[in-house]
Amino acid sequence: MKLMLLAFVCVAATAVAGDTLVGGPTHPSGAEVDLDLPAERHQANMGGSDGAGLCVFTAIGMAADWAHLPGLVDFRDYMTRHPGGGYPEKVDRFLRRLCQERGLPEPAYLQIETKGLDLLAAAVRQGRMPAVTYTHSPTGRYGGRRIAHMVNLVAARAGARRLWAVLDNNYPGSLEWMTEAEFHACFSGLGQGWAVILLEPGPPPPPWNVDPSPKE
Amino acid sequence: MLSLLLLLLPQAAAAPPEAIVRLRVECPPGLELYIDSHRSVEQGLVRHFHTPPLPEGRYSCRVAWRQGETEVACQQVEFAAGETVRVAYPGPDPVVPANFGLDLRQWRPAAKVSLNGQPISLKEAERLLDGPATTGPDLPSDGQRRRLTLIGPAAARQAVERELAGPLRELAADYLLKSYLPNDWAVRLAGFVTHGSPTIYAQEADGRVLFRQNDGQDLRRNLEAVRAPKGNYQPHLDPDYRRAAPPADEPSVLFPLLCLVMSAVLAGWLVRR
C-alpha cells in the first residue's frame, strides 16, 4: 500500500513537473498554443541608444505582427534611436509619435495594470496577443534570478491542464510553457502585472474543409 | 510621489526648489517600508520620495523594512539638501532585477486600465476585448465570429473592400475582415490559396471553409448562400426527448401500397387455388 502511494506521488509529481518546460507550439500533454506566431517572425530584444533594453517595444512589435499592423512591426528598431526602458506612459507617447511620423492611424490598444489573469485569458481567447511583464523564468532561464522583462503571451488556459505559454524575446524560436500559478507569479512579481494589448484581431485560422478532395 | 518630512533638524525657512532631497528606496516584494516610522503606501520594487526644499545642511533618516511586525532590516541614511539618494535593500538577494527593458524608475505600478492613454473601467476593457464597438449582447465575440479574408494585389482587395463597406455591408457584418498580400506569412504559411485577384475566403471561427472564390465577381451570391437555410432541413424531424414517443416520420404511402399489392397477390393466388 505504501509502495503504491509512493508510486502515485512520484507519478503525480512527475506529471506536474512535466507541465513546465521549454518547447514548441504543442506541449507534450497535447495542449496547443493559442497564438502561433511562426518562429521566422520572432524578434530578439535589442538595446536603446543608452544601452537599456527594449523588451517592451520588441514585444509590442511582435503583437503588431500578429495583428497585421505592418507599420508597427519594427517598433523595436524605431526605438533603438531613443533611450531604452519602457513604462505605460512612454508606450503611449512613442506609439503616438511613431504613427504620426508614418502617417498611420493610431491602433486601438489597452494597457492593463492588474494582478489578475482573466483579462489576459480573455484577450488570448479572442485572438489578441498581449505583451506582459515577466519577473522570472520557471524553467530556470536567467540562472533562476529575478528579472524585469516583457514577453508575449501566446497560450492561456490551454488544454486539459490549462497551461500558459510565453514567447520570450531573449529566446526567440522557442516557447516557455508553465502552469497558471507559475505564470501568475511571473506576471505580477513586481507587485502588479502590466500588459499591453492591441485590439486588432489576429490572423484567420488555417483553412480546412469537410470534403477531402482538393479543389486545386 | 509621496512627500514626507524626514528631518531631525529644525523646520525650514523658505529654501530654493533645488534643495529638495529625493530618495529612491528598494523594497523587496512582501516587505513593508518605513521612513522614520512612517509606513510607505507606494508599491513596487523601487519607491520614490521627496522632501520639501530644505535649508543647506546635512540630514538623516531611518529606513526600515518589516515583515509583519518583525523588522528584518534597517539603515540610517544621511544626505545633504538637494541630493538624490539611492537606498539599496541591505538583504542578501538583490532587489533590483536583471533588467531587459522595464523602466522601474518611471513605472509606478497601480491597478488601472487605459485605452490609448485614456482611463477606462475594467468592464469597458472586457467589452472591448470581446469585439468591436458595435457588438451587441446578441452578437458573437471576435473569437466566435466568421472570418472573411482577402488575399491578393492591393488594388483588387481594395475594390472588394469598397463593396463590403458599401452594398454588401449588411452581409459583411457577420464577418471579421482581414486583408493580406499573397506573400504575407499569415496566409503563406497556413495553406491558403493566394493566387487569386483577389482570393476571397469565408471561414467559420474554427477555420472550416464556407466558400472560396478567386476573384471579386458576384461575391453577394456566395455570401447569401452561406447565410441561407440549407434545403435539406426538415424541422419536424428535430428530436425533442421530452415527448413520450419519438417524433413520427412523415407518413409514407409506400407501406400501405405494398400491403395492398401483397394482399392482391395473395388473394389472386388463393382464388386460383
Give an overview of the whole structure.
The complex is a heterodimer of chains A (216) and B (273). Chain A has 216 residues and is α+β, with helices and mostly antiparallel strands. Chain A has six helices and seven strands; from the N terminus they run αβαααβαββββαβ. Chain A has a seven-stranded antiparallel beta sheet with strand order 1-6-5-4-3-7-2. The longest helix of chain A has 16 residues, at 2-17. Chain A is globular, with a radius of gyration of 19 Å. Helices cover 21% and strands 27% of the residues of chain B. Chain B has a four-stranded mixed beta sheet, with no helix packed on it. In chain B, strands 4-3-6-7 form a four-stranded antiparallel beta sheet, with no helix packed on it. In chain B, strands 13-12-14-15 form a four-stranded mixed beta sheet. Chain B starts with a strand and ends with a helix. The model of chain B is unreliable at 1-13 (pLDDT under 50). Classes of the chains: A alpha+beta (216), B alpha+beta (273). At the A-B interface, α2, α4, β2, α5 and β4 of A face β9, β10, α1, β13 and α4 of B.
Greatest contact between two chains: A-B, 65 and 59 residues
Structural class of chain B: alpha+beta
Which structural class fits the helix and strand makeup of chain A?
Answer: alpha+beta
Mean pLDDT of chain A: 90
Which oligomeric form is depicted?
heterodimer
Shape designation of chain A: globular
Estimated share of beta-strand residues of chain B = 25-35%
Along the chain, the helix and strand elements of chain A come as HEHHHEHEEEEHE
Shape of chain B: elongated
Output the strand order for the largest sheet of chain A: 1-6-5-4-3-7-2
Rg of chain B (C-alpha, Å):
38 Å
